[in-house]
Amino acid sequence: MKVLFVVSNLFFSEPLGALQLSAVCKKRGDTVRLISLRQHSVNLVLREFEPDVVAYSATSPDEYLFQEADEIVMRWKEQTGKRVLRIMGGPHPTFFPEVLDKMSLDAICIGDGDFAIHHALNAFEAGKDLDGIPNIATPSHRNPSKEIVSDLDSLPFADRDVFYEAAPDLIKVGIRGFMSRRGCPHKCTYCFNHAYNRMFKGDGRKIMRRRSVDSFLEEIKCVVRDYPKVKFLRFADDVFAIFADEWLLEFAERYPKEVGIPFYCYVRPNNMSDDIARLLAKAGCLHVGMAVESGVEKIRNDVMKRNMSDDVLRRAFDQAHRHGILTSGNTIIATPGSTIEDDYNSFLFTRSLRLTFPSFGIFMPFPKTELTDYAISIGVLEPDFNYRNLRPSLPSAMNNYTDSDRRFQQNLVFLGAIFCFLPDFMLPILKLLLRTRLTFLFKPLGTAFTTWRMSKVFPNAYPTDPVVFFKSLVNAFRHFAATPTKQVNINRSA
Ligand code: B12
Ligand code: SF4
């Protein structure tokens, strides 16, 4: 069968979910194509490729894009009379299964799709309905049994061919992404992981799963060999190192000898220890992402459930820096219930940690996260708040701020990172600037500064060809700019 995977954007950070499933389909004998809604014409691809299956891989911020695309698919289906399966998977249908009705899809996948897609395509090909397949919900079977892929080593490696066929320029970007594990044990209130864990725990299902070091290194070596030139690796696990355990010891021993390419990964600051920093440094970790989230201890722990003191954060960043590892991390501004004094103090604390690449973003209230429920419960967010079409760094959606507060917060998002590197005596100037209406000036300034700082933590990873460089920059920017709300940093683990 012909399977068309549809994602919202293609840039250096590969859509590993779709690539993983593409590998499963190819193993089944299917012909696969991947397109991005921001870079390809759905109409054109439908006419050329004539897919039997349209497989959307969606995150919630992009729901509206998929809705628009699906209208085109429906029209094409009606015109051609072709039998086509329209199925959606990824975080969006996992956390918002109501999308099944909203888009009148044939099926959605809730959670892991590796086995589910295989069974769904078998059923569709045989002319059967998809009811009864674990993790697959259909209009007539809304509560499928739950399945978690426990042996990650048994899965095929992500299909990179389909990615570079869809975005040939990206091979010239020296970064390649991998995942060694699935799952996160933490309960940060702005993240979807607590919802995922609640949905899937029980009946012996293991949420935290990890590949063997063998399988992980084997995939990396294949990619380094088959898709040159690889200059930097991105390990996208929510939390790459939790303990200095056997896995990390083996990885730190073997990775430098067998691969030896600098990489970055996420670590939750309260998991960072001297042992972990030493092992990561030994392995060749150039940069570790550790989120600050709030510089105000009470907000960080009571509201965000980060469970880490200021001292723990200070120690974590010190340990990384002492071992020569660069650091990046985000701080969320306008957390429900906080004041602009809290925001400024949060900035000061982040500044004191001396991150290589600090970033600031305004809280994005995604429904179904605990923090959004909290915002509604304390009356600072309307219950019917529409998260569609919002963009990062837009004014806060909380209703307890004045216009001047919102400007202050937005200005802090753009200027905060810059002032982390300026001397103390400049801070009164920042305070003045934060109160001005010059946001339109601070935005390009902040964006240019961020791009420059990013090049510090992703060294040599930018393509040398100026045209490709420019295109990849625009795409990365579009991806972030298309994020619906105010940069909630819901994803960035750790
Ligand atoms: C890397 C990453 C990013 C990268 C982008 C990667 C990319 N190219 O898309 C960056 C840093 C840019 C990013 C940005 C954002 N991210 Co992000 N990100 C991740 C992260 C850490 C890993 C994604 C990944 O590769 N997963 C690995 C693959 C294997 O898993 P998967 O994609 O879920 O796919 C599996 C299933 O879902 C299913 N499946 C997937 N597609 C399909 C399709 C079909 C047809 C079927 C049947 C099944 C199926 O099968 C796959 C294999 O089992 C995830 C967390 C996580 N652990 O997944 C968050 C996550 C996806 N991000 C999230 C969020 C909120 C964001 C931001 C809004 C954050 C922000 N404030 O800017 C933006 C939004 C960007 C956007 N417009 O969508 C949320 C999404 C929640 C939601 N409801 O959609 C997540 C889940 C984090 C979380 N726990 O809250 N992110
Ligand atoms: S924010 Fe990071 S550490 Fe917290 S639950 Fe989400 S992935 Fe885990």
Attribute tags:
43% helix, alpha/beta, 14 strands, Rossmann fold, six-stranded mixed beta sheet, 494 residues, disordered C terminus, 2 domains, binds cobalamin, six-stranded parallel beta sheet, binds iron/sulfur cluster, pyruvate-formate lyase- activating enzyme
Structural account:
This protein has 494 residues and is α/β, with parallel strands linked by helices. The protein folds into two domains: 136 residues, Flavodoxin domain (Rossmann fold, 3-Layer(aba) Sandwich); 307 residues, pyruvate-formate lyase- activating enzyme (Alpha-Beta Horseshoe). It contains 19 helices and 14 strands. The strands form three sheets. Strands 2-1-3-4-5-6 form a six-stranded mixed sheet, sandwiched between helices. Strands 7-10-11-12-13-14 form a six-stranded parallel sheet. It binds cobalamin and iron/sulfur cluster (SF4). The site of cobalamin has 45 residues, from helix 1, strand 3, strand 4, helix 4 and helix 6.
Offer a concise description of the structure:
This protein is an alpha/beta fold and about 500 residues long. About 45% of the residues lie in helices and about 15% in strands. Mean pLDDT is about 95; it is low at about 485-494.
Helix and strand topology:
Elements: E1 2-7, H1 16-28, E2 31-36, H2 42-49, E3 53-57, H3 63-80, E4 85-89, H4 91-95, H5 99-102, E5 107-109, H6 114-125, E6 136-137, H7 160-166, E7 175-178, E8 181-182, H8 193-200, E9 209-210, H9 213-226, E10 232-235, H10 246-258, E11 263-266, H11 274-283, E12 285-289, H12 297-303, H13 310-322, E13 326-333, H14 340-352, E14 357-362, H15 370-377, H16 403-419, H17 427-434, H18 439-457, H19 466-481
Parallel strand pairs: 1-2, 1-3, 3-4, 4-5, 7-10, 10-11, 11-12, 12-13, 13-14
Antiparallel strand pairs: 5-6, 8-9
Helix pairs in contact: 1-6, 2-3, 10-11, 14-16, 16-17, 16-18
This protein binds cobalamin and iron/sulfur cluster.
Cobalamin (B12) is lined by residues 8, 13-18, 20-21, 55, 57, 59-62, 87-92, 94-95, 109, 112-114, 116-117, 179, 191-193, 236, 238, 364, 479, 482-483, 487-491, 493.
